[in-house]
Amino acid sequence: MNIERKQAKQKEISSGHSFLEWGMTILKMPPAKRIKMVRDGVKVTHLVGAGRYYGISQAKLSKLLGISDATITRKIRSSGKLGPLESERLARIALIEAEAEKVFDSSDLAKRWMLESNLALGESPLSLLDTDMGADEVRKVLASIAYGGIA
After folding, report:
1. What average pLDDT score do residues 12-29 get?
2. Is 29 helix (H, G, I), strand (E, B) or coil?
3. What phi, psi does 97 have (nearest 5°)?
4. Cα–Cα distance, 69 to 23 (Å, whole number)
5. Pairwise CA distance, residues 38 & 65, whole Å
6. Rounded distance, CA 3 to CA 27, Å?
7. Among 81, 47, 79, 77, which Cα is nearest to 64's?
8. From the Swiss-Prot or TrEMBL record, what is one GO molecular function term (predicted)?
């Protein structure tokens, strides 16, 4: 890999904001395109960006995505793509982050809300996004906040 490509890759990996941009992009995608993206696998750089954005460890990311630390490390080293299941889980995190940004009208408030324990949920919204049921509950709380409820 030449030096310029290596530097570009490092810049993309180190930017947590690329994760935010990606979330907003997929939020606007038609469902069929979003499904194709997930089936094809998403770049591991989005995973690294998520970790940097939230300031969470690779171990926490591996739990959220249901894959081992070793698999994440291998995919980062090879600049590979995540599999469909991991891609869907990462896309779910990005989509809910984007939804939270719309509700709070602030990426900082949305991130803080995602990371802090929530009384209505019993733990942080981010920690519940490893399952569909957890994601559904997080979305319900966001909807409640958006429409004037307390959560």
Report:
1. 76
2. coil
3. -60, -45
4. 23
5. 13
6. 33
7. 47
8. DNA binding
Orientation of helix 44-54 relative to helix 58-65, angle to 10°: 120
Q: Are 80 and 40 in contact (CB under 8 A)?
A: no
- Maximum mean pLDDT: which of 40-44, 79-83, 134-138: 134-138
- For 35, 43, 69, 79, the CA distances from 76, given in Å and listed in that order, are 23, 9, 11, 5
Give the tens place of pLDDT for each residue, 90-129.
999 999 999 999 999 999 999 999 999 999 999 999 999 9
Specify which residues 81 forms β-bridges with.
Answer: 43
Q: What is the pTM of this model?
A: 0.85
Contact 111, 54 (CB under 8 A): yes
